[in-house]
Amino acid sequence: MTDAIYPAIRMRRTRVAPWSRRMVAETVLTPADLIWPLFVMEGAGVEEPIGSLPGVSRWSVDRIAERAREAEALGIPCIALFPNTPAALRSADGREALNPDNLMCRAIRAAKAAAPGVGVLTDVALDPYTSHGHDGLIDSHGNVMNDATSAVLVEQAAVQAEAGSDIIAPSDMMDGRVGAIRAALEAGGHHDVQIMAYAAKYASAYYGPFRDAVGTRGLLKGDKRGYQMDPANAEEALREVALDLAEGADTVMVKPGLPYLDIVRRVKERFAVPVFAYQVSGEYAMIEASVAAGAGDRDALVLETLIAFKRAGAAGVLTYHAPLAARLMGG
Ligand code: PBG
């Protein structure tokens, strides 16, 4: 069959008509493929635009509740919350992460009250709470200490689960933390709280605008290469995923997204579990910059990018373009 050639084979036959293109499409995008990351800040009635993420804002807790209802109306199944902790509450040990009334916990409760049918995913890592901007506790040399950090992350996860988080998403890359968090969730009666492990999270230059959004860019001393992965490595990502699954992760994430689709594909093929991709802040900013420069059409760029994630094997995508994409899909 493969040696049949032109004109018996005309690849264009199935492409000519829109109905036929739809009929043979191998991949479809729906609003259910989207997770919408949202930034939370103190105040009431506040929307604060983020300069390096044009079109994305920080919202006060009451307005996060509105966003949760908007997600519901658009058919977006899940939102992801990230707090911009007031500077006065950041400390070397990030203890505000354990405050059951911190910004994150209040936002979780508000979102769940406003739209109980929308999933809430919460990031577990200390960077929005530490005065040095690292994801964990640092020693006198500035190295993030694995086991001491993991112990705090377990408590942070428990606090978030108590507040109503549906999905705990450890983004810190400490060894062993997924198993420790799973054990604590089980012990605390949170059997149905999922863990989405940021399993393959790379030390990436694409996180810049996010660090503006949560207020860590100016604080971060050094870089995160001592715990996040080297962009040169792929087999190491498979080991990370294997470990997180063995420790009890329900789903895994690859991050960043588009530059790491090879990892998404390999993880999907090897493990056959739901793999999520995070199209991170720098990727969003690149699309917006290209639109601002007149180099591309936003709607087309967004949809083409998202279908690429699905084609690579992703079960869903965390993307700041989620509400736009859902509207474009008729959500
Ligand atoms: C923090 C965290 C980061 C992102 C998600 N969780 C930044 C970092 O690791 O420095 C990045 C998301 C984005 O860039 O959109 N643990």
In short:
Helices cover 38% and strands 15% of the residues. By secondary structure, it is α/β, with parallel strands linked by helices.
Bound molecules: ligand PBG
**Radius of gyration, taken over Cα atoms and rounded to an integer in Å:** 20 Å
Biggest sheet: strand arrangement: 1-4-5-6-7-8-9-10
Q: Averaged pLDDT, please?
A: 97
Question: How do the SSEs run, as a string of H and E?
Answer: HEEEHEHEHEHEHHEHEHHEH
Full CATH superfamily name: Aldolase class I
Largest sheet, in brief, is: 8 strands, parallel, barrel
Distance between the termini: 41 Å
Number of helices: 11
State the name of the first-level CATH class: Alpha Beta
The fraction of residues assigned to DSSP E strands is: 15-25%
Total strands: the figure is 10
Structural class by sheet pairing and helices: alpha/beta
